[in-house]
Amino acid sequence: MFQLKRYPGNPVLTGKDFPEGSGIRRVFNSGVIKAGGRYVMACRVEDAALRNRIWIAESDDGLRWVPRPGPAELPHDDPDFAEYTAGMYYDPRITYLDGRYYLMHAAHSSHGCRLSLLSTSDFSRFEWLGHVSAPDNRNGALFPEKINGLYARLERPNTGGAFGDMWVSYSPDLIFWGKARCVLRNRDVRWAWTKIGPGAVPIRTEHGWLTIFHGVRTQCAQHYVYQLGVCLLALDDPSRVIGRSEEAILEPEEQYELVGQTPSVVFTSGAVLEDDGELKVYYGGADTVQCLATIRIERLLEACGVASPRV
Ligand code: BMA
Predict the structure, then answer these.
(1) How many A from CA of 57 to the centre of ligand 1?
(2) CA distance from start to end of the chain
(3) Mutate to test the pocket of ligand 1, among 46, 287, 291 (most ligand atoms within 8 A of CB)
């Protein structure tokens, strides 16, 4: 009923759009924000050695994207970055907070997956703030404001009893995180019993934090299907779900979502709310290409049970 509408020009970016000789094969799950009237995408790019990097692309209209000449320069000579990030940093979510942009992303190494944080004011120079979670955490989405005096993020524990559920945690300084609470459990989402976790950075509305999440179910032969869902979290306590769509809002259906490196995946790390209420949801198709789908934000609020949405 409340399905996202795919942009007819999908995919909006593929590996072929990156400079010749760059070796980029795939681009997906990229973070996106509108900054000073332009759109900026922190692309997750992947080469044939399966190195994952962040590469900035820009756009005037959110539809046609131009990658910069080279990837974002990051502190590869820092021993901590090298050891725990090991050529695999991905799924960046961009948050504008206190006058700076923050990129919370997954950092993968033989030690497992954890969260790491970059900050920038211009998307040219990046400051690395360090690894900001214990091992076995991924999909960090930093809220665009403090909540009850603390920074807040959604996240997905990657092992143990909390595996595959969506949590919120808090921090006084963006580095040390705690006070974690469970937000939503996979068993509570009928189309995503295997795992759920944050997608795009939550969007403040007067009804609550509108939150697009990913949900995964396991079909036979251990085949994962990744979809998108939407819920509404209380503004002053995002561990409280105050509304949720019963249905997925985007399921893999198109060829570029069903066929690719990982079949049957739609996965978002970024959405942009336009002034006229249109929400642009950027998502990866099959861990291979970057796509776009749209919907009016009122429709998503209705999907979460808000009778007369105000935006
Ligand atoms: C998730 C993340 C995503 C990826 C998805 C499907 O766990 O790692 O980056 O798109 O798996 O492979």
Answers:
(1) 21
(2) 20
(3) 287
Q: Which residues contact 61 (CB under 8 A, 6 or more apart)?
A: 39
Total domains present in the chain: 1
**What are the pLDDT digits (tens) for 85-136?**
988 999 999 999 999 999 999 999 999 999 999 999 999 999 999 999 999 9
Q: What is the pLDDT of residues 157-202, one digit of tens each?
A: 988 888 899 999 999 999 999 999 999 999 999 999 999 999 999 9
Reported pTM: 0.97
| Residue 26 belongs to some domain of the structure | yes
Q: What is the CATH number of the domain that holds 233?
A: 2.115.10.20
Beta carbon of 226 within 6 Å of any ligand 1 atom? yes
Residue 308 inside a domain? The answer is no
Q: Is 261 in the pocket of ligand 1 (CB under 6 A)?
A: no
Q: Which domain holds residue 245?
A: 5-303
Distance 308 CA to ligand 1 centre (A): 35
Closest residue (by CA) to atom 1 of ligand 1? 267
Give residue for tokens 């949405």: 309
* CA 201 – CA 94 distance, rounded (Å): 7
Residue pair 128/81 in contact (Cβ under 8 Å)? The answer is yes
Asked whether residue 79 is domain-assigned, the answer is yes
